[in-house]
Amino acid sequence: MLKPEQPLYVYELKGGVPPPFLNLEGLLGVWPEADYTYLFFTAPADATLQLFFREHPEFKLTRHYQLPYGHWQQLAAREPLVIDRFKIITREQSVQLLPDEILLRIDPGVIFGSGLHPTTRGCLRALSLLYSTVNPAKVLDLGTGTGVLAIAAAKLGAQQVEAVDLNPMAISTAAANCERNGVTNKVHLIMGDARENLPEAELLCVNIHFDFLKEFLDDRAFCRYRWAVIGGFLREKLPMVRELLPSCAMVKEPELEEKGWVTLILEMSKL
């Protein structure tokens, strides 16, 4: 992980959908936030981004700034972050837990999935709610980021979790977080695009940008899972999501919403 004094060069872009993996020199991480995308670099990346904008004219640079990594961590962390029965911390500290609470030790670096974003919060709430009534043993987490959902599932009772991401920085971050939480024996990290060859599982977790989410909802392979937790879209997209859902999928109540972002729990029937 980065040292507190390590400088971060942050570029704020507006418009467009971030590609699932960006191979840009010095890129540490990508942080999507509504209509904006934040790119974190280890050094000034003006020349690199000029080439990126030529290939992706749908993006516009709105601002850029520099700050120490330690300052970013202070901005990103509100500790302990309490989400349903989860308590999330990013630094070593003593935390008192109630009997039914679960501690998640997550150092996000600059990878999406610290628990601050409403989509992550909604998915954590959905996992907690789902595991209060059923106990899926095998879980597939697509776009794992920091590994927070995969780790949460493992701590809730999943025996095997396949966690997939295209970003090698996300995989290394998730691996470190799995070790911090003592779940390396349960969580198997996979770097790559698993959309065409998805592993078997009982529960599918998909917390990915809406434009990528549509591909999964329009695939009959979606029906082979018993349950699904899907997030990454605003309420205005909910009618479209419902239309895209395959006939096998039934939306379980309640719909979960965090600051306009919706998370659904789905139960699939056999066709």
CATH homologous superfamily grouping of the largest domain: Vaccinia Virus protein VP39
* Count of spatially separate domains: 2
End-to-end Cα distance, whole Å, is 46 Å
Order of helices and strands: EEEHEHEEEHEHEHEEHEHEE
* Helix content, binned percent: 25-40%
Total helical elements = 7
What value does the average pLDDT take?
86
> Which residues sit in consecutive blocks of at least 5 with pLDDT less than 50?
none
Overall, the morphology is globular
Architecture of the largest domain in CATH? 3-Layer(aba) Sandwich
CATH fold category name of the largest domain = Rossmann fold
Structural class: alpha/beta
* Number of separate strands: 14
Q: Please summarize the sheet with the most strands.
A: 7 strands, mixed
- Strand content is 25-35%
Q: Which class of the largest domain in CATH terms?
A: Alpha Beta
Radius of gyration: 18 Å
Secondary-structure blueprint of this entry?
Blueprint: E1 7-14, E2 27-33, E3 36-41, H1 46-55, E4 60-68, H2 69-76, E5 81-83, E6 86-89, E7 102-105, H3 118-131, E8 138-142, H4 148-156, E9 160-165, H5 168-180, E10 187-191, E11 203-207, H6 210-217, E12 227-234, H7 238-244, E13 249-258, E14 261-268
Parallel strand pairs: 6-7, 8-9, 8-11, 9-10, 11-12
Antiparallel strand pairs: 1-3, 1-4, 2-3, 5-6, 12-14, 13-14
Helix pairs in contact: 3-4
